[in-house]
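Reading is simple: the token line describes the chain's fold. The lines below illustrate.

. . .
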Amino acid sequence: MSSESTTIPGSIEPGPQHLAAFARGAVDLIDEKQLAKVLAKGRPLRVKFGMDPSSPDLHIGHAVVLLKLRDLQRLGHQIVIIVGDATAMVGDPSGRNKLRPVLTRAQVEENLLTYVDQVGRVLDMERTEVRRNSEWFDRFGFADLLELSGRMTVARMLERDTFETRMKAGEPIGIHEFLYPLLQGWDSVEIQADVEFGGTDQLFNLLAGRQFQEQQGQMPQICITTPLINGSDGRKMSKSYGNAIGITATANDMFGGVMSFPDDAMPMLFQHLTRLPDDEVAALLAGHPRDAKQALAQAVTAQFHGDEAAGEAREAFVRQFAKKELPDDIPEIPFPASAGAEGLPLTVLLRELALVTSSSEARRAIEQGGVRIDGEPCTDPRAVIAPPSEVLLLQVGKRRFARVLPRG
């Protein structure tokens, strides 16, 4: 196996702002002395961040690193996004306590369609290097894979908290899962990364890259981890848990989603998802929690939708919840023409109106008291809604509404 040499033209103006930007909010920084020494040379650093297209959308948890990358890009450093179209087919075992299904290349390609566009909502893509790791792994032969596998021992692999926990619990571990940190580590060799970012669950993989680079005679990359953002339910933010706020969410949904976080999460969210000055954040946190959270939600929403849309989302939220007013933009939808005279089950109607994504989600919302008809809660998942003779107001949760119009 070999890697091509990559150099970065230009220079940067040395100064403490560079080290501060790299270190801001970091959980692990291995190691800071090396980073300071490299920065003192006054050259732009190659900063790697890998994303596997294992699902179609990014959420604001990914923005923790993306916002740091934007800070570094503005300081003149070269951001290198590794799109893991090869490693996504293996599946990252980090944070998983179950055997992860292997994705097909077709599934990966489908998910990949939206990734670059979503990253472009944060980074300047004209100045961002995007590389697919299939570029080198599709060239890998059997001998290459054996050579790469020989760089890591089973004993060290089992030191990973994820694998150790799963073994103790009797959960299966696929041999292919051992390959993932090796492949991610080799990405760093191929692009000659100076720095790699990842969540705290990625530290083992980042250190593998550092080890492989040193074996290849390259400068070992600096490894920086950032904390994982939990959803409003306290679990790691994930689309599969239904607790994620998508980067592509509307301004109103993003604002409302941030408002659902617990109060004690605000200091962390201010630090990692906004760039408000420290003294302003301190003043907000010292005041009323409601005002602080609204300022947080507005700042986060502004990152993706701009100041004007974020301000409008805040005003809409206050009207709807603080003043108990209905939103101004409730869609008006005719009762489905496909329904018979007897009507439709409520679970089906909610799905047909796109207030939920599935009948099972509708059932859960109904059973949990999250569905209202003309302002009154409906908790019977077997309820059938007849075609209305006048406008019917349906509500799911706090932010999803529809006015159902009579036929004809």
Remarks:
- The chain has three domains: 16-230, 251-322, 332-405.
- DSSP finds 18 helices and 13 strands in the chain.
